[in-house]
Design brief:
Elements (H helix, E strand, L loop, with lengths): L2 E6 L3 H11 L5 E7 L2 H11 L3 E4 L8 H11 L4 E6 L4 H10 L3 E4 L4 H12 L4 E2 L1 H14 L7 H4 L2 H11 L4 H8 L3 H15 L4 H10 L6
Parallel strand pairs: 1-2, 1-3, 3-4, 4-5, 5-6
Helix pairs in contact: 2-3, 3-4, 8-10, 8-11, 9-10
């Protein structure tokens, strides 16, 4: 039986390229595509794929948050992170979120196929380009977790922060998350208090640095 795959990337040209290349392998079947994290989570619920190839920097909901939702709801689904980011924060947070593999977008295509086959066998796969980053991060921390947006803010606060950083106003965020305007404002105040920040500009810079958005 073919390995059923969903492609998640906000650039259609990337998804088209991946689909074309993967179609050369009869043991792999692309069953769906998504352009943001929220759509990826919903599509995964609907189609129950074997593997999701996940970009990190996507609008509305980033790949780290989407991975956390997917692996929490459907632990049998394997997530392969395919990103342009090699920074230790992105790598470590994707792995903490439950990703089974992490590759860089400039990797050879054959490496992606290897990663898909590897995670399908319930094994981890790290691109050689990021293996050193993971080891170095662990050694420097002596195994102690590093403070990040994922340890400081709640799931809902991270969602609100990403949408704020992407320029959404209170009404738009409320509509997107099915919340009242007052609730969104309360989350915004809590976020600012927890981070000791006092402007949207500060929050935006923080969100970009932490990998919530690429804007």
């Amino acid at each position: 039986m073919a390995i059923r795959v969903i492609l998640a990337d906000d650039h259609k040209i990337v998804r088209d390229g991946l689909r074309t290349l993967l179609q050369k392998y009869p043991e792999i079947e692309v069953i769906g595509e998504a352009e943001d994290g929220r759509s990826t989570v919903e599509l995964t619920r609907e189609l129950s794929p074997d593997v999701v190839i996940m970009d990190i920097a996507m609008p509305d909901m980033n790949g780290i948050e989407a991975t956390r939702r997917i692996t929490g709801e459907k632990p049998g689904v394997k997530v392969v992170a395919l990103s342009m980011h090699s920074d230790k924060r992105f790598v470590s947070e994707m792995l903490k979120a439950g990703a089974s593999a992490y590759l860089l977008k400039h990797s050879a295509f054959e490496e992606l196929v290897t990663a898909i086959m590897t995670v399908r066998e319930n094994r981890m796969y790290l691109s050689p380009a990021v293996t050193g980053v993971v080891v170095d991060s662990y050694v420097r921390q002596n195994g102690k977790p590093e403070s990040s947006v994922f340890s400081v803010l709640s799931d809902r606060e991270r969602e609100v922060l990403q949408l704020l950083a992407e320029g959404k106003n209170t009404k738009e965020i409320a509509s997107s998350l099915n919340l009242s305007g007052k609730t969104v404002e309360a989350h915004r105040m809590n976020i600012m208090s927890k981070l000791n920040m006092h402007s949207i500009a500060e929050l935006t810079k923080y969100a970009i640095r932490e990998g919530l958005t690429s804007l």
